[in-house]
Write a structure and sequence with these properties.
The protein folds into two domains: 191 residues, Alpha-Beta Complex (Quinone Oxidoreductase, Chain A, domain 1); 130 residues, Rossmann fold (3-Layer(aba) Sandwich). It has ten helices and 20 strands. Helices cover 25% and strands 28% of the residues. The longest helix has 13 residues. Helix 7 links the parallel strand 16 and strand 17.
Length: 347
């Protein structure tokens, strides 16, 4: 079968690899759609994503959807009870918790913080966990999430990044009736706009250096848009800030925009090494600065919200075939292209 495989820095290929075998306790999914993520681009551009470094070829892709093609005999009963059969439309929770670990009681339910998590398309552990940018993918039955009626498979591939955004907004606490600043209107930021509106935020302000990104944020529900590169000024005294750019130089201004006693959530990936950032206002304004990492099971909430009318289509700016995936990666990596989420038709 064909797959998108990264072999190292600047070495990305669409190539033939062996078809997966559906084990007795597994499900084989015929992949249909995949969304290119920043971590996919990082593996291609640098051979690493954060602290995860490539040591072997890796099939990329964790934002995916497809249809059930084969069900292992030992998985059949459990799936039937969930209404899942051959041909069912599904997306997948990309995480698999591994190992026996003792964790603090207050984080036991926060499975995203488990010490060892294998994740689609990740080089964090050996052997690497292969991703879903391929014709077929064998998965555990519990990873499947049924795509609700009215949600397309193309949209369902965005349930994973939408879950990341929902988790980030949830980390801020109750945002109902509050003013929320989302800094960085890339895919996660734009989805955080939608997540904040869905959670009842009274006003959501999006900030970015790209007018094209801000246009998408507005279509995702932002009440106001600010472009500092064009003379725009960040708001003052917002209740909550969601920092989605991951740009260290942006931190000082975003922190200064949060009211005294407010909350700032960091969902944008910061560099793994030392950085220079203006953080003094965290102390003097007594701001709660919280991290946000992946998600627990908000992928199910994401699908429900899409089914109830949250429109993620403005995010999907480009579409390529699997054979054209390298061109799709070029588009996704080039902000001047106006791209947000580049979708690969895997089927």
């Amino acid at each position: 079968m064909q797959a998108v495989v990264v072999h190292g820095k600047d070495d990305l290929r669409v190539e033939d690899i062996a078809d997966p075998v559906c084990g007795a306790e597994q499900v084989l999914v015929a992949m249909e759609w995949g969304g290119i993520c920043g971590s996919d681009i990082a593996y291609w551009k640098s051979g690493a994503s954060g602290t995860a470094v490539l040591s072997a070829p890796l099939v990329l892709g964790h934002e995916v959807s497809g249809t059930v093609a084969e069900i292992g005999p030992d998985a059949a009963a459990a799936l039937a009870a969930r209404g899942i059969g051959i041909g069912s439309n599904v997306t997948m929770h990309p995480a698999t918790l591994v190992g026996e670990h003792q964790v603090p009681a207050d984080t036991a339910d926060r499975t995203n913080l488990w010490p060892e998590v294998r994740y689609f398309g990740s080089a964090a552990f050996e052997p690497h966990e292969q991703g879903g940018f391929s014709r077929l993918r064998a998965v555990r039955p519990e990873q499947l999430r049924v795509v609700p009626e009215g949600v397309s498979l193309k949209e369902a591939a965005l349930a994973e990044p939408f879950a990341v955004a929902l988790h980030a907004v949830a980390r801020a606490g109750d945002v109902a009736g509050k003013t929320v600043l989302v800094n960085g209107a890339g895919p996660i930021g734009a989805l955080a706009v939608a997540a904040a509106k869905a959670a009842g935020a009274a006003t959501v302000i999006a900030a970015d250096l790209s007018d094209a990104a801000l246009d998408i944020a507005a279509r995702m529900g932002a009440d106001q848009c600010v472009n500092p590169a064009s003379g725009g000024v960040l708001p003052q005294d917002v209740d909550v800030a969601i920092e989605a750019s991951g740009a260290p130089r942006a931190l000082g201004g975003v922190i200064a925009a949060v009211r005294r006693g407010g909350v700032m959530v960091q969902v944008g990936n910061l560099p793994g090494g030392e950085i220079s950032a203006a953080l003094g206002n965290i102390v003097t304004r007594e701001i709660d600065y919280r991290g946000s990492y992946r998600f627990v099971d908000e992928i199910s909430e994401a699908l429900d919200l899409m089914a109830s009318g949250v429109d993620v289509s403005p995010l999907m700016t480009h579409e390529v075939l699997l054979a054209e995936a390298l061109a799709g990666f070029d588009l996704a990596a080039d902000r001047s292209s106006g791209s947000s989420k580049v979708m690969i038709r895997l089927g």
